[in-house]
Design goal:
The protein is built from nine helices and three strands; from the N terminus they run βββααααααααα. The protein is of the alpha+beta class and 192 residues long. Strands 1-2-3 form a three-stranded antiparallel beta sheet. The protein binds zinc ion.
Length: 192
Amino acid sequence: MATKECPICGGQTLEEKQGEYRLEPPPNIPGGTMTVPDATWLACSTCNEEILSDALSKAIDRQRCKRLGLLTPEELREVRKRTGLSAVDMAQLLGVGEKTYTRWENGRSIQNKSNDTLIRLLDKHAAAFSLIEAEREPNRDTLIAGYLQDLSRLKGSNPLAMAAHGGDLGTVITENLRKRLQEIVARRKEIA
Ligand SMILES: [Zn+2]
């Protein structure tokens, strides 16, 4: 098979490999050897350097996240899409730098467990985040009043009438809370 020049050692010994890729992960990752079927990569027989394709790197990262019980980059993007927040807003809510958050979504680094937990909570309980953010607000009384008013108004709606329109009360409330969360984020920006 034709070999190419290795960018690491300069030897003409870089060879394309295909098949099952095997990797011994570091000790902090449980589950033993990682395997990726139908992979493509380059390997140098002189210096033993390996150059992985993008797809292979991503597959390994996904396994790493799953084994650590953390959301994968794709899952992070899905959560953010559901909340309707921008990457900048997410970073602000979590209290991390914008670049840090973006690196998690791009798979260039992995969020730690506490941030992973916060992101999962934001996904499942946007209302709790709204309340916490509202508590930090200088004009929190108005915000909380508005929040409660919206909630009681929605609770007072006739569920049957809403079902007739194809709507579900739970979803409507959730949507409303997400909107409120976005409003609060926008207000925080105005104040900052
Ligand atoms: Zn080499």
